[in-house]
Give the backbone structure.
Amino acid sequence: MDALISLLPPIAAVVLALATRRVNVSLFISIWLGGWLVAGGPNRCGGPDL
């Protein structure tokens, strides 16, 4: 499961870059997503347990 979660930020960056055509915004969001996942993700932020 951790391996799949670690693929989310780069996949999000590519998908967002293709969808929005704004690479800087896509990279910022994917870096934020990676940091959020490292910090504990939804489990530490009050979300449901995965």
About this structure: Helices lie at 2-6, 8-20, 23-38, 41-44. The chain has a mean pLDDT of 84. The chain is about 75% helix and 0% strand. Residues 23-38 form the longest helix (16 residues).
